[in-house]
Amino acid sequence: MKEFRHAKGKRLVYLTAYDYPTARLAEEAGVDAILVGDSLGMVVLGYPSTVPVTLEEILHHTKAARRGAPETFLVADLPYLSYATLDRALSAAERLLKEGGADAVKLEGGEEVAEIVQGLTRAGVPVMGHVGLTPQTASQLGGFKLQGKRPEEAERILKGALALEAAGAYGVVLEMVPALLAKEITERLSVHTVGIGAGPHTDAQVLVFHDAVGLYGEFKPRFVKRYLEGGKLIREALQRYAEEVRQGMFPGEEHSF
Ligand code: KIV
Ligand code: NA
Q: What is the domain count for the chain?
């Protein structure tokens, strides 16, 4: 992976984006990589989880994000069950890379997906892994909670990350795991780790755009830092717009022909 061969220890910045304006803002802000995550389902499409997201939906949004950020490394998530077999994974990846303009794909799981990751990378598809809390199968993990607290759980996550690296993954996302486990995995891997809710020791960090700018709901997980109360600002602006229309203040002379 040309762009990420020297990513180890670089503290790279990943951010999700799902459309033209958000990807454009991410690129203008100078992030190192954009992820068209299947968090799309929750923060943009209003689904209760990432499970319903389809390949067509990810593809549609990958194309838009690519148009907004033509110069930035772009990873697209493989949706739930789109990589259940190598054939399916290859054809999904083919569409995301060729039609969508993605540079890489990401999929969830450890040892159980290593063979798929190996098949993809052997075919020439850059793949990012994702272990710890894996939202597509969160119900099997007991919900959206910290993973890897118990030693045997931590061991499984570490083994998963090592298996992904051995299978050719160019990097691995660590989601909602203890900071010390993320540190150990980061030290053991020669490819870069990307943390979310995984503490400060991963090589890179990722945040969901709508979480970072305050556009998603009232619920804020502990690992999210809101850099902007965007929802509040936008709501207030729209209230002003509605008020001005109702009071005959908009449009004014300067907006009229
Ligand atoms: O879908 C997503 O946004 C993700 C990141 C949180 C890693 O997978
Ligand atoms: Na995802």
A: 2
145 and 178 fall within a common domain: yes
> Based on the domain organization, do 254 and 140 belong to the same domain?
no
Q: Is 27 a catalytic residue?
A: no
16, amino acid identity:
T
Residue at token pair 């700018």: 213
Q: Are residues 241 and 144 in the same domain?
A: no
Q: Which structure tokens are listed for 162?
A: 């090592």
pLDDT of residue 5: 64
Residues 235, 148 within the same domain: no
Check the annotation: does 190 bind a ligand: no
Reported ipTM exceeds the 0.90 cut? yes
What length is written for the chain?
257
H helix count then E strand count, the chain: 9, 8
Coil, helix or strand for 77? Answer: strand
For residue 36, give the nearest of 23, 45, 52 by alpha carbon: 23
| Residue linked to tokens 């984006």 | 17
Domain range for 236 is: 230-257
Is 106 among the annotated ligand-binding positions? Answer: yes
Per-residue pLDDT at 220: 79
Q: Which residue has the tokens 């710890």?
A: 132
Judgement on whether residues 196 and 249 belong to the same structural domain of the protein: no
pLDDT in tens, 155-172: 999 999 999 999 999 999
The pLDDT, as a whole number, for residue 71 is 97
pLDDT-flagged residues of the chain (< 50): 1-2
Active-site annotation holder among 175, 229, 243, 253: 175
Q: Which two tokens stand for residue 80?
A: 């739930």
Closest ligand to the CA of 78: 2
